[in-house]
């Protein structure tokens, strides 16, 4: 039986500086430090001891492959909600805490947006040289540079990685029809010089391999990073790099929820009624992204064809049968699992009938509607630079500048619950223990990472508390223990006994 699909989202935000040094690394550091010092009022560093981004799930790496580097010198901090907030290459990145289900993932992704908004405000108060920092929740700078929105899913180590690659690829290629963030034009040679007016996905054109380890060059549809951040004998963390950063909550919910369900079916060895293998997944990713009609036939490995919408309908039918036969405990919450299925079917039906009817639910449709309305008013072509400016402003996180914020998009998580998620960790994963310890004893936690905390009790040596199971350390497991412990020393004594 599939294990619960504990999940999370890592978002690299675009950053721009006005009236000063445009260095994005320095700007990201100012932003994060301002939040840590003024808003969070603490700065617990990241423990890099268990970082191993060069490990490949296949047991080898392609000749010439460049594994991601761990940049230990850049600013890293851990927040009381269990999240990681840090400088990743040239971007501020917010990694949600471990979430038990897709709806919780939406809530903490929204909390991340609030953290970035407050970081901008804090930086404005700290910086006195006239610089202003602007953050965008998007995936490319319009000049050929792309930055990621990655997802993570807990999987059973016993599931062969080759099966994961084969069975998840059709989903990754086609889910962009509801998870894409939309983009004006093209920035790469993915389309052989053919003009592109608008794409469904911001990231799709940057993918060049079917499977591989890299995340910034030769990006693969299926990433092979084998860094479980948990007991490596029991668990795998599937690191997904093929998605867009979404502002629309329904798009985020479907992106995470449908993927969790597909992975659960893979773990339980559920076979599709017919072969869904694509002849050329990389070409198909590009084809789907530029096909607003959703009618483009994708060549399958057996010589047949199918549209992206058709592949998604087949995956949905499999998931519906799977839920009826085995239940949805794998989704963390049965009701959330049923909501994923309901929304999935509803959105696919609307895409089939009239994609533009989904402007309240999907980013790419909402953005396209904005752009088409502007083109109608101004009588301009798709090469008008004002359209690219509208595209960028859609993703601007500043509430007074964001075009997304002016739209009547559907909300799934209530404002007060998002506000709580800015400072409080999820109750159903080990993030609860991490976050509550940081709240209760911030001066005693030296460093933290996903699978351990390091305490300084005032005596040598430092004490490491391992957290190798993402489903241990929950509120149910440790609340009484935390309440009874008056100090971290007492907590560790109780844990030892």
What does this structure look like?
With 497 residues, the chain is an alpha+beta fold. It folds into 2 domains: 412 residues, Creatine Kinase, Chain A, domain 2, CATH 3.30.590; 67 residues, no CATH class. The strands form 6 sheets. A 6-stranded antiparallel beta sheet has the order 4-5-6-1-8-13. A 4-stranded mixed beta sheet has the order 3-16-17-18, with helices on one face. Strands 2-7 form a two-stranded antiparallel ribbon.
Please outline the major beta sheet: 6 strands, antiparallel
The span between the termini is: 33 Å
Identify the CATH architecture of the largest domain: 2-Layer Sandwich
- Give the amount of beta strand, in percent: 15-25%
Helix content: 25-40%
Q: How many individual helices? A: 14
Structure in a nutshell:
This protein is α+β, with helices and mostly antiparallel strands and about 500 residues long. It has two domains: about 5-420, Creatine Kinase, Chain A, domain 2 (2-Layer Sandwich); about 430-495, no CATH class. It has helices at about 25-40, 100-125, 160-175, 175-180, 250-265, 280-290, 310-325, 335-355, 365-380, 385-395, 415-420, 430-440, 475-485, 490-495, and strands at about 5-10, 15-20, 45, 75-80, 85-90, 90-95, 130-135, 150-155, 185, 200, 205-210, 220-225, 235-245, 300, 305, 445-450, 450-455, 465.
